[in-house]
Amino acid sequence: NAGVTQTPKFQVLKTGQSMTLQCAQDMNHNSMYWYRQDPGMGLRLIYYSASEGTTDKGEVPDGYNVSRLKKQNFLLGLESAAPSQTSVYFCASSLVSSYNEQFFGPGTRLTVL
Amino acid sequence: AQSVTQLDSHVSVSEGTPVLLRCNYSSSYSPSLFWYVQHPNKGLQLLLKYTSAATLVKGINGFEAEFKKSETSFHLTKPSAHMSDAAEYFCVVSGSGNTGKLIFGQGTTLQVKP
What we know:
heterodimer, A: mainly beta, 7-stranded mixed beta sheet, 4-stranded antiparallel beta sheet, 11 strands, B: mainly beta, 6-stranded mixed beta sheet
């Protein structure tokens, strides 16, 4: 039981490049989330998915896109990376209720030059 | 709208002394509240959660928190700090609706001095 896994762990991009961050969970959770963490700002929600095939914008969705084609996978895409997207990205999953805690992956450290 | 404020960005204690990390929340309904811990270069781990049962919640590693509705607070405490407690701590409130969304505080860095 691996929980929530993320790939890659580290990534360096040049401005304008694109990439996809991958997240997988093996807990059969309905909901999945993508956050970014910046110093002094806590975690901010980028996108979330309440169930397979559905996605919704969070607090900071601009410049990102997501895909939830399978229940266990949630992909975060950067179409044209910008230096402002340098951050640590966390994926999380949970059962659908707000009473249930979210389980977090180890994070992806992304630097955009 | 739901929000959470962590009153201290940094807290420094000596090993063996009590820990108090302060958190106030704002919510238009009875929220679920959580404390998460993040050790350096690691993901977030749940310490404890409040979901409208007992107001004093016990978590892992000797931490506990008390839900005080009248003060809209959910402070985290531990009687005796250990060096391994040095980390960043996040107070979190559930978002509106039943989406499972969470609202994070800005975090408190706990330093433990020998």
